[in-house]
Amino acid sequence: MTSRPIDEIKKDLANLKQHLLTNKDELKVQLNLAKREVKDEWREVEEGWSDFQVKFKELVEDASELGEEAIQSVEKMAESLKNRLHEFKEKHK
Prior knowledge:
By secondary structure, the protein is an all-alpha fold. It has two helices and no strands.
């Protein structure tokens, strides 16, 4: 069994520490970028919700007659929004 010089061990440990610090800093940057991406995705979901609310109000509260085309349009928007919410939830578990 050969014993390594203490200076070599210290150097190796310092290199290991620097490697870990570099990895930690890179992950921190990636996390910040991911946060922005998630916020952007959520903003799109919120916009979809706002659009749905307007369309729903027009259909249900303001319409004197409920046409089949209008009903299908709101149902389609609701389904799309439901899918976006599900995708967001699954992606960010």
